[in-house]
Amino acid sequence: MTIKVIIPYIGDSFPQYFPLFLKSAEYADFIDFLFVTDLELPPVHPSNVHKVHCSSGELVTRAKEKLGINLDLTYPYKLCDLKPAYGHLFEDLVKDADWWGIGDIDLVLGDLHSLKTEGIFDQFDIISFRQHWLSGSLAFFRNNELNCTLYQASPDWKKVFEQARYVGFDEAARLPNKRDNIYDNLRNGESLQNLNTTCHSFSEVVFFHEHGQRLYFQNRIKEFIAEDELIHFKDGHVFAERGTAATASFLHYHWVTEKRSYKFSYPDWEAIPNEFWVSHYGFHRSHENIASEIADRKQKARAPKAYVLLTKRLLGGLKRRLWK
Asked: 265-303: per-residue pLDDT in tens?
């Protein structure tokens, strides 16, 4: 069985956390990760991680030739909307694969081998790790013509693909009021079909169109760390822990929530160890030092607020002196 995950990347450099992803990909050695980019991969990287040279201009040309669209990459994140079309857009790269996949790199992968031992690849045709929407951070598609063009069942696909801004087509789209979080609605049991979304998303196609593909949609990823919780990565496995006890295992940890916080920081390790922990404040090499490191980071995290208050007081005092 051959599986190829396609990850286009546009930018001046790979992010600081990229080595963390690479370390975890090393353990998923039955999957090939293809980076479609004009950047060079780090000199040392896993043997199942490959570069396919492609500039942003070449991507735009490819989209025109393969999909017949005028792709605007003013905002490179726009490529995420096109994820359900990767099997079509990059059909030459996956033509000899049994499965193709989509993925992000702001994550560490867990025990993907368990999907083989559980027979998931044998029993299903589309595999997602969120129950109520397609998990854009990692998903797999059996490589057949239907799956490669299924995105076209959405009446909005072309209009969406030619918009400059990301609209969430790959997952569940958005609600008209930007303050409303569609994922909260779905987690609370509302049907995607009954929500007034900004476009007809790929998840809506998968769930509510007749296509005959067998679906595996289960909650098996972690995308939030509570204050009293840790993520433990060890030898290609990802666990959630409270205290010293593991509470659950996951197929990957995606720091999509934590990375929005100024309190969360990435390590500057020269080499990524086979075992590390992640807290609400960032990454830790040693379990023994986590408590002291968190305390130190909490203190530093308060510094910006204290600085703002101090600045306000100083400016207030200056104003009073000037007004006298």
From this structure: 999 999 999 999 999 999 999 999 999 999 998 888 775
Q: pLDDT above 70 covers what percent of the chain?
A: 93
Distance CA 123, CA 78 (A): 32
* Collapsed DSSP state (helix, strand, coil) of residue 276: strand
Predicted confidence (pLDDT) at residue 319 exceeds the cutoff of 50: no
Which amino acid would we find at residue 248?
A
- C-alpha–C-alpha distance, residues 52 and 46, integer Å: 15
- Per-residue pLDDT reduced to its tens digit, 130-145: 999 999 999 999 999 9
What is the arithmetic mean of pLDDT over 148-154? Answer: 98
CA distance 92 to 163: 25
Task: Judge whether 237 and 249 are in contact, CB under 8 Å.
Answer: yes
State whether the Cα torsion 169-25-249-285 is positive or negative.
negative
Contact in structure between 48 and 23 (CB atoms under 8 Å): no
pLDDT digits (tens, 9 = 90+) for 191-200: 999 999 999 9
Q: Can you list the positions of beta strands (E) in 15-158?
A: 31-37, 49-53, 99-103, 107-109, 126-128, 138-142
- For residue 136, the Cα-to-chain-centroid distance in whole angstroms is 6
If you average pLDDT over residues 112-139, what whole number do you get? 98
**Domain spans of the chain, in order of start:** 3-219, 222-297
| Structure token pair of residue 280 | 């609400």
d(CA 74, CA 87): 23
Q: Which two tokens stand for residue 48?
A: 């199942």
CB 277 within 8 A of CB 232: yes
Are the beta carbons of 18 and 7 closer than 8 angstroms?
no
Across 117-201, the runs of DSSP E, i.e. the strands, are 126-128, 138-142
Do 140 and 99 touch, CB atoms closer than 8 A?
yes
Q: How many residues does the chain have?
A: 324
Closest CA to 60 of 156, 168, 161, 170: 161
Sign of CA dihedral 190, 195, 199, 200: positive
